[in-house]
Write a structure and sequence with these properties.
Elements lengths: L5 E9 L7 E10 L2 E7 L9 E4 L4 E4 L1 E3 L11 H8 L4 H6 L4 H10 L2 H16 L3 E7 L6 H17 L3 E9 L10 H18 L5 E6 L6 H13 L5 E4 L7 H7 L4 E4 L5 H10 L2 E4 L1 H6 L8 H7 L3 E3 L13 H12 L3 H7 L2 H6 L17 E4 L6 H4 L6 E6 L2 E3 L8
Parallel strand pairs: 1-4, 1-5, 6-7, 7-8, 8-9, 9-10, 10-11, 11-12, 12-13
Antiparallel strand pairs: 1-2, 2-3, 5-14, 14-15, 15-16
Helix pairs in contact: 4-5, 6-7, 8-9, 12-13
Amino acid sequence: MQDWDMVIHNVHLATMVNGYGELLDAAIAVKDGRIAWFGPGDELPASGAVLHDGQGCWLTPGLIDCHTHIVHAGNRSDEFEARLNGASYEDISRAGGGIMSTVRATRAASDDELLRQSLPRVLALLAEGVTTLEIKSGYGLDADSEAKMLRVARSIGERLPVSVRTTFLGAHALPPEFTGQADAYIDLLCAQMLPALAGDGLVDAVDAFCERIGFTPAQTQRVFDAAQALGLPVKLHAEQLSDLGGAALVARYGGLSADHLEFLSPDGIAAMARHGTVAVLLPGAYYFLRETQPPPVAALRAAGVPMAVSTDCNPGTSPMTSLLLAMNMACTLWRLTPQEALAGVTCHAARALGLQHETGSLALGKRADFALWRIARPADLAYALGLNPCAGVVHGGVWRTPVVSLPD
């Protein structure tokens, strides 16, 4: 008799190995928070494990939202309304809006208040089967506020049934106290902020915003050098508004991912393919900003570059807390297939976080992170707008209902 902790039977598996990796009428077993066995249900060995009836649901790897700015204070619905009433970006900025309004609100919030405002956004994702979440800093832009954001991100992973990976995005924008002194700010970031935050165990990866309205490739390279000196992997907001060669730059550093990529060049695609850098597609920002330049999905597909999909949850350009909706947008706006979209929030999203050996597919020894769905076929997850068919979630081998209550 097998010494397992839990068995889920009467399920169809989408292993996300070689396409959907479908296995009908199956079962899956868990021991010590890891996948111990899976296969046809009629071959399930005897065990004394807790038995869960999957009731004919589909079981996929737990979903992974691999690019979010979900920890922040305040919101910018006023700017959304102003833009729809004819205000320009310049008008909003002159009135004190834009990213700096979020920076002010985030700096002013206490740890507890920042956590309180962020938790509902996280809970919305968990209700849709998310078991792993990346959270970036970047709305503090000073040492204390960046540390506060990263502490809150760590706290979310401690309070809720979700694995959190933290990313330091100090090079997100130029803080007002460094106006006209971008190189001096990068000096501070590389010499003091990043080493201190990494030393406190708050940083899993390092990101930057490489754009004309952000930081130059040379400044970004300095951030990457500092990250590598600390043994931290890098990723990059690249080619969202223009082609500055950011994707090729992060690929040369062996970066985990290049994200956005609407203006990605053939050279950038070739570099990403050569170095194994994941393309993270963010349809929410494209939709919310009513952009017209799509990322080169067909060329990425032809080059064999893995494509992840994420919400990019943030207050200014993608206030979205539905990874299922992001999947649908990626299909309808950019013609990903439903199988590509599901891979984009499972196996490829795991690779974008450097977690491909831990999660993102159903394989022996991987973490027991699952989502169960009341659907007829896996493509339904990218098909039905506004429907959440999540019937259950397993995180680290622990069964829970899809809806998680706010912690006391």
